[in-house]
Amino acid sequence: MKVRLGSRGTTNGSFDISIYAVCTRQTILLDIVHRNIFILTAGALIEEVESTTKTARIAVHTHIKGLGLTPEGVALPIASGLVGQEKAREACGVVVDLIKSKKMAGRALLLAGAPGTGKTALALGISQELGGKVPFCPMVGSEVYSSEVKKTEVLMENFRRAIGLRIKENKEVYEGEVTELTPEETENPLGGYGRTVSHVLVGLKTTKGGKQLRLDPSIYEGLQKEGVTVGDVIYIEANSGAVKRVGRSDAYSTEFDLEAEEYVPIPKGDVHKKKEIVQDVTLHDLDASNAKPQGGGDVMSMMAAMGKNKKTEITEKLRTEINKVVNRYIDQGVAELVPGVLFVDEVHMLDIECFTFLNRALESSLSPIVVFATNRGVCNIRGTDVLAPHGVPVDLLDRMLIVRTMPYSVEEMVQIMSIRAAVEGITVSEGGLTALGSIGARTSLRYAVQMLTPSSIIAKTTGRDEVAEEDVGEIDELFFDSKASARLLKDAEGYLK
Ligand SMILES: Nc1ncnc2c1ncn2[C@@H]1O[C@H](COP(=O)(O)OP(=O)(O)OP(=O)(O)O)[C@@H](O)[C@H]1O
Ligand SMILES: [Mg+2]
């Protein structure tokens, strides 16, 4: 039975959702994109359940929004969620400029400092400053250890994920809103009872006029793959026949729809025209999509292969082939290289083989900027008995610029704490913040940040909305930080040894 269950405004009242659902006895849970979840029952009873998605998304680094630098590259004391650490932030700003100028490849930066001094936070700040168009590929040193894939293979893949390619092309396209979509069938020319699609009639409409196209059955497959229906805005590339669905025409924006649809205006100009199409891909996307060679060594057929999913292994030979094509297209000006950032956190987890590989990879012409981070001092290089600073061989260290992150002062801790409290939606009194700051100074920033939410729970149980000094004190007595716990263990008796 298909019934209309009703419509209701959402919390902000700015839109109205109507829901059609097939009724069964059970409760149907529909997750609607607009932040609200409705539970629908057979009796058409609608109950609003508060979504948890928004609160659950606050992660360790949620408050970091950038590097907080002035246009001249000077670090502001508190900006973009970052506090203090001025020198390291300015150094990261220089790296962002280097990446934006696109002239460099193969540079490496090492963020070194004690745990909890903001190395990972700074790397995320860099990625935020670069924006969505520049690839940023984060990985952790221990990711390279897999029983199936070679260590160097994992590294190479991540290197290539961090290099983007922007392909600009003036293409002849047919673009418009679909007004008609009729496949025409004929009898199978090879005999038998089946019928085949001989061609497909597609009507396209723009603000200027309309056109009816008679297309090859292979394009019909493309139309089906993109899920094109009447009322969608699409374009079809004239020479390759590739179909791209842009979105739903906004003339249909009032129709009831549970899916998140992107509504686009009806295209202007003629149906048949030249259009500049910009596509951003990474070298790894090209590798993966061409893992099974499809023939045709040009960028366009490489791009076209992206949608197909039958793959074989990515070999070194394939990568060399792709590099050749990419280099040719860069020389011709069709494509532009966008070197991004590969961020390797906990770099001391890599072993000597990986380090040797990195030396070579950094020197290749297609290399991103590599940012490493480590909290180790002098320790063994993994896989050897050799001691080295940061657990990184000196020859690789020699290729890096090293940025140090410094421990925070109490005032800086208090400021970070108040930023975190704001992000987590907790109000903390002055006294509470100072108490948290001094706990941070005694133990660590991370531990102090962890105490925010428990303190707010204690405050709530005593009927207050604001976290006061005594709540923090109470939590401090309930929990132990790592140092305190270690101290206790040292003189504890009765534990299993
Ligand atoms: N300068 C800062 N401003 C605001 N928040 C910060 C700052 N530095 C660190 N933080 C926050 O403190 C916490 C710990 O920092 P982070 O995880 O970056 O430390 P780390 O140096 O990577 O430590 P580790 O060596 O253990 O990996 C995170 O929640 C981070 O967002
Ligand atoms: Mg870290």
Q: What would you say this structure looks like, in words?
A:
The chain has 497 residues and is of the alpha/beta class. It folds into four domains: 2-48; 78-162 and 340-405, Rossmann fold (3-Layer(aba) Sandwich); 168-278, RuvBL1 DNA/RNA binding domain (OB fold (Dihydrolipoamide Acetyltransferase, E2P)), CATH 2.40.50.360; 410-482, Helicase, Ruva Protein, domain 3 (Orthogonal Bundle). It has helices at residues 53-56, 86-101, 119-130, 151-161, 217-225, 283-289, 299-304, 316-332, 352-363, 394-397, 410-424, 430-442, 445-450, 452-461, 469-478, 482-491; strands spanning 2-9, 16-22, 28-31, 37-40, 46-49, 78-79, 82-83, 108-113, 136-140, 163-187, 195-205, 210-215, 232-237, 243-249, 263-264, 272-282, 335-339, 341-345, 369-374, 378-380, 387-389, 400-405, 427-428, 466-467. Strands 10, 11, 12, 13, 14, 15, 16 and 17 form an eight-stranded mixed beta sheet that branches. The N and C termini lie far apart (66 Å). Residues 1-46 and 51-55 have low confidence and may be disordered. The structure holds adenosine-5'-triphosphate and magnesium ion. Residues 60-61, 64, 81-85, 113, 115-121, 375, 405, 416, 445-446, 449 line the site of adenosine-5'-triphosphate.
